[in-house]
Amino acid sequence: MGISFTVLSSGSTGNATVVTNGATTLLIDAGFSARRIDELLQERDLTGGEIDGILITHEHSDHIKGLGPVARKYNLPIYANEKTWDAMNKSVGKISEENRIVLDSGEVKDFGTLRVESFGISHDAAEPVGYSFYDGDDKLSVATDLGYVSEKVKRAIADSDVLVLEANHDIELLRMGRYPWNTKRRILGDMGHLSNEASGEAMSELLTGDTKRTYLAHLSRDHNMMDLAKMTVRDAMEERGCFYKETDFKLCDTYFDRPTPWDKVSKP
């Protein structure tokens, strides 16, 4: 069947994504109330009972807000590295031992024919990670909440057919915004969030003939807009000599209040 996915919702107020190959269906993060997650799943004709497990990127509340209630309601295993487990233990509440599964940063795990590879990223959390998913020749990578795209991350997500990549903020909007300077400095730092320009710079190195779409994710509602993000990413790519035709590659939207359409990851 290959890989299909939907970004249920993405932004500074909450994040969750579903990845499936038909035989296995995984939820990445659970940054909304259990009720809201159920609503988002229903919008894509899914129920919590169809989820086989939850992968966690890191312990910040916009990624684990509904984790405990959802996992308990549907008796779901949770996969996270040890430092993330330690950091989120109090937040998620009681989880049965059989559903507390350690997935080390850098580990590769097979869920039937769906292969998942975890990779470390730079963010101010205990041990944050992104994930790449493989089914046959198809590859999907999800990398948000990273201050910069390291060479290690570039290697991990290289040759992806589809990317979900952070474009959190416009630098000037953030600098002029209402946040206190220490918060702005955190966001702009190497352990903060990826700017539109930095996302475009990374894409200029990552775009290959295999990569057909990049979903710009985790946009700040205060310091970004999707049209601005797409324009800045495109300009940054072109400034570095990376030109593309819309028929060959597309920048795609994500939303803070609704899911993206189902997208099938497949080579032509």
From TrEMBL:
InterPro entries for this protein: Metallo-B-lactamas (IPR001279), RibonucZ/Hydroxyglut_hydro (IPR036866), WalJ/YycJ-like (IPR052533)
Transmembrane segments: none
Catalytically driven reaction(s): 3',5'-cyclic UMP + H2O = UMP + H(+); 3',5'-cyclic CMP + H2O = CMP + H(+)
All copies of domain Metallo-beta-lactamase, residue ranges: 13-218
PANTHER family documented for this protein: EXODEOXYRIBONUCLEASE WALJ, METALLO-HYDROLASE YYCJ-RELATED
Role this protein plays: Counteracts the endogenous Pycsar antiviral defense system. Phosphodiesterase that enables metal-dependent hydrolysis of host cyclic nucleotide Pycsar defense signals such as cCMP and cUMP.
Name of the protein this chain belongs to: Phosphoribosyl 1,2-cyclic phosphodiesterase
